[in-house]
UniProtKB/TrEMBL annotation:
Signal peptide: none annotated. It holds the Pfam family Amidohydro_1. Residues 53-384 form the Amidohydrolase-related domain. It comes from Staphylococcus equorum. It comes from the Bacteria. GO terms for biological process: organic phosphonate catabolic process. NCBIfam families: phosphono_phnM (TIGR02318), PRK15446.1-5 (NF011984), PRK15446.2-3 (NF011987), PRK15446.2-6 (NF011990). GO terms for molecular function: hydrolase activity, acting on carbon-nitrogen (but not peptide) bonds. This is Phosphonate metabolism protein PhnM.
Amino acid sequence: MRVIKNCHLVCENKIVSDSALVIQGQRIADIIPIENITSLPDTFEVIDAKGGYVTPGFIDIHSDYIENLTAPRPTSLMDIKLGIREAERILSSQGITTMFHSLSIYNEDILEYKPIRRPENVSRLIDEINQTRNEQRLIRHRLHARFEVESVTQVSSLLNYLKKDSIHLLSFMDHTPGQGQYRDIQGYVDTIKGYQKLSTDEVHVKIKEKQATAHITQEDMKELINKAHEKGVGIASHDDDQIDKVDFNHQLGMQICEFPITLEVAKHAYQKGMYTAVGAPNVLLGGSHSGNLSALEAIQEGCASILCSDYYPASLLYSVFKLHRVEGYPLPQVMKLITINPAKAVNMDDEIGSIEVGKKADLNIIQFNEDYPVITECIVDGKIISQYHYRMEGVQ
């Protein structure tokens, strides 16, 4: 058994500073007054948090970081098992204890520069990541299938993944130029030209091809959604840019609105009872890298439920403390954006997402090195899986 002392427990609605946290096996066994530590048996392992915060482990429901680790260059496909091991090491050091690896399911990648997104490689990733669930791993691995609605030939594969319980979150994407993320055609042109050596005329030919591509039918979408509901899988829309699109997706049974394009859309989705997910890198950058909704503005307006790391895992930790220390939000309030709220959105809140007796002991101890928050201990299932020690005076 373990006890964490000398800490500030960041609970769901308050910070508790006069108590210690007891871990027995994989779970939080008790929260006791600090003076009661002396009465605990000598067999307890004592973890001194040194005045730091103890938070729930972070839950990231949208990140394609695994693609960078398994394919660091367009022509370099590394060993997938090695990529997963590296992901665990890196993500745990950043406080992420549950990762929904976001894998794109396309007929072809819209930007055509990531071979890791080819169907055969996505299938390999799905198989390997699911295999880790039968092994002893450092963090919780889950899969987020990002399904492009023009991927008509991939419907049967996705249904099969759902039937085999290989998918744990499903989102529907539409990257057709002229709407959604690429409603600004010039922005699409600039993006394509940034990745491919094409002339402007050639890009406009590609735009017309994309706009003419058939999408899956509403019946196919309903079948996928029904199967996801049957399996308890969360369902998200993606890059909604119109209120009627939110209404349509909500009526179909989608519970999460990922990266709404405008504040009006974000507010509407939130009012409909959907979890609205915005990007943590957006918070750090001070705005969207693609000129869309500012995550900070959505938080200020009270219509953001979840922060996702998207492409930069370290952003979860840093964005929350920017919101707390720079923007002045109470720490328990903004910590929910990366803990209990995503847990609820993906139906895992009965086990993880908050510091409560009986829940899994997925925890982080956070101290500060100068102005930067540092994960000094990351705990999953009651086990310390990552530790970081530093000296304030610097390297000697």
